[in-house]
Amino acid sequence: MAQLLRLDASPRRSRSHTRTLVGEFVARWSEGRPADTVIRRDLGYEPPPHLTEDWIAAAFTTPGQRTAQMRDTLAYSDRLVDELFASDVLVLGVPMYNFGVPAMLKAYIDQIVRVGRTFAFDPEAADPYTPLTSGKRAFVIVGTGDAGYEAGGPLASMNHVEPYLRTALGFIGIDEVEFVYTGNDEFGGERLQRSLERARSRVADLTPAREVVDVAD
């Protein structure tokens, strides 16, 4: 049994293609693995706070030296990290904004990429950074206004969503990441529908088949 963490970064509601596709991904996953649990954090509706000077001071203070106020400052970040550690699979819905990730997802990443929690730092080591997160997979569904941002596409060089997320997640130890793209939101019509269908086909390929139990009497 595994735990799936759903992260939605779109502030849109019913008009969000990433929310729709992530919902379909989770539904198919749950159908194929009914014993798994699903938890959800809606970054689009409840954006994480941005980092502050107090947060940085607290995060870079040795845990045993932190004041009660520092611990309070890091409490939200600690909840996010604990939630991440408790999950085996991450599913992210990510609209592309101006070629990068939305600010609310960037704020989330800033809260979970933490020295001493999700990565270790030893300035004397040959490789000073050690990931502290392991055994997790991530699936990222990206929605774009145009199309062709995936690898090999005509707009791939303008895609700063995938390289950033691969780098940030890989830095803390999540390096098994699959991307699904849906585009043409700005064009709509048949172009959008074809893109959504391709994304749905990819989602079907990535989600587990329904378990069939053969019971003999």
Automatic annotation (TrEMBL):
It catalyses: 2 a quinone + NADH + H(+) = 2 a 1,4-benzosemiquinone + NAD(+); N,N-dimethyl-1,4-phenylenediamine + anthranilate + 2 NAD(+) = 2-(4-dimethylaminophenyl)diazenylbenzoate + 2 NADH + 2 H(+). FMN binds at residues 10, 96-99. GO terms for molecular function: electron transfer activity; FMN binding; oxidoreductase activity, acting on NAD(P)H as acceptor; oxidoreductase activity, acting on NAD(P)H, quinone or similar compound as acceptor. It comes from the Bacteria. Keywords: Flavoprotein, FMN, NAD, Oxidoreductase. Binds 1 FMN per subunit. Its cofactor is FMN. InterPro entries: Flavodoxin_fold (IPR003680), Flavoprotein-like_sf (IPR029039), FMN-dep_NADH:Q_OxRdtase_AzoR1 (IPR050104), NADH:quinone_OxRdtase_FMN_depd (IPR023048). Pfam families: Flavodoxin_2 (PF02525). Its EC number is 1.6.5.-, 1.7.1.17. Residues 4-203 form the Flavodoxin-like fold domain. Belongs to the azoreductase type 1 family. Also exhibits azoreductase activity. Catalyzes the reductive cleavage of the azo bond in aromatic azo compounds to the corresponding amines. Homodimer. This is FMN dependent NADH:quinone oxidoreductase. It comes from Nocardia alba.
